[in-house]
Amino acid sequence: MGNLLFFLPMQLGAREGGLAASLAILGKGVADGFMTGIFTRIRELFWICIGVLLVKIGNKNKQ
Questions:
Q1: What is the pLDDT of residue 46?
Q2: 28 and which of 6, 16, 23, 47 could share a cystine (Cβ 3.0–4.6 Å)?
C-alpha cells in the first residue's frame, strides 16, 4: 500500500492504513495494524536521531 502511494509526503498514513487493511484480511484487528504502523514510525524516528547524533559526533572529531 505504501508503495502505491509513494507521492504522498511521509506516506501520510498510507503505511498505517495498509497495515490495518492487510491485518484485517488476515483476521487480526484493525487496531493491531495501526499500532504496528505507529511502532514503525517510532523506530524510524529513533534511528534518525541516532544517525544525526553520530554525524554531529563525527564532525566534531574531524575539526
A1: 95
A2: 23
Beta carbons within 8 Å of 4's beta carbon, 6+ residues apart: 14
pLDDT tens figures, 6-62: 565 666 667 777 777 888 888 888 787 778 878 888 998 999 999 999 988 877 766
Residues 6+ apart with CB under 8 A from 20: 30, 31, 32, 33, 34, 37
Whether 18 and 24 have beta carbons less than 8 Å apart is answered as no
CA 52, CA 59: separation in Å to the nearest integer?
11
pTM of structure: 0.61
